[in-house]
Specification:
5 copies of one chain form a homopentamer. By secondary structure, chain A is mainly β. Chain A is built from no helices and 6 strands. Chain A has one domain: Beta Barrel (OB fold (Dihydrolipoamide Acetyltransferase, E2P)).
Chain lengths: 93, 93, 93, 93, 93
Amino acid sequence: MYMAKVIGSVVSTQKDPSLVGKKLMIVQPIDSNKNPIRSEEIAADSVNAGIGEYVLIVKGAGARKADAKNKDNNRVRDVNDCSIVGIIDRFDK
Amino acid sequence: MYMAKVIGSVVSTQKDPSLVGKKLMIVQPIDSNKNPIRSEEIAADSVNAGIGEYVLIVKGAGARKADAKNKDNNRVRDVNDCSIVGIIDRFDK
Amino acid sequence: MYMAKVIGSVVSTQKDPSLVGKKLMIVQPIDSNKNPIRSEEIAADSVNAGIGEYVLIVKGAGARKADAKNKDNNRVRDVNDCSIVGIIDRFDK
Amino acid sequence: MYMAKVIGSVVSTQKDPSLVGKKLMIVQPIDSNKNPIRSEEIAADSVNAGIGEYVLIVKGAGARKADAKNKDNNRVRDVNDCSIVGIIDRFDK
Amino acid sequence: MYMAKVIGSVVSTQKDPSLVGKKLMIVQPIDSNKNPIRSEEIAADSVNAGIGEYVLIVKGAGARKADAKNKDNNRVRDVNDCSIVGIIDRFDK
């Protein structure tokens, strides 16, 4: 997982059916000092994160398991490979 | 997922059978200001994206689930690890 | 796997149910001379690593197998993609 | 997927049984202008690519599906995580 | 896959049960001129590689299939995501 800041979203009408209804947020990866690292990514939001919030990002197969309403995630066709899985309240160092 | 601009395509006659009939697009990853980041990739197009369009890219196992006509994607032998899964209409920031 | 130093933790109240009860540590990847490399990540702790300790990090599907109490890990919905799987006692070179 | 140029091969006698009989090519990733990007990788050749040819590379689980003779790839123990899956005839931009 | 040089090992007493008995080697990724690239990784040795030898490295799920004695690797809980799968005798360019 890594830390990121939500900085916006993208609008896409023509997309894979498995992405319909998902909020696709633009996230900027950060370090624990809130400084930007690497490049922006697009993450599907599963925790109602708002613009400006600091979040936890998961990539790969784990990202497809982030929809808690769906009990049997492995059987659902889902192209998503990046999800917001938590809102960071505090960095303890 | 990440953002990219479609800048061309590659022609390949001698290739894995699972890639036959797929449009293999050259995509340049971008940030939300449409500036290029990292290096170009080759992505299979599943949403009819044209040259110059901004798109969403998925990598890994998720990319093999992007063919919506195929209901049981996990059972199809498919080498693809990178797909265009959406056309970006707008960046909201 | 790679080497990292545990430098802190994050607190997240609103998060994926599969992350509840997990210690989410901020880890700084290092080389075998203990110099920092790349950027910080967030790893779920499965070996009771403390702040300042040098640890082994696993990413991807392997990270979801790090909970030894759970015998049938593949069937548990778990979004985690990064785990601390060992405490490094010594670097032999 | 990404583009690469085949620049050589490695000889390995002592190796995982699943790699025996595979041609292990040294490939240099390139962009669509044929300029080198990143560092060299080792890819198993599944399309009879020769030294100097431009090829398509797949990584991860997809690479293990590149052996077309094997119908039920998922059941074969195979450590390979990088395959040449196509020879690029032309870059259209 | 990529090329690396074995430069040491790490000792870890407190670790995931699936890593017990595995030799955890410090490897420095290299290019085909034996120059170092990127940062060091930790790889489980499955081919008895010694310090100073040039080896082939596999990452991800493929790394968990590198234990040839285990016929049904997919069913064994194993956190490892990086294995040495071959010793390089010669670079042909």
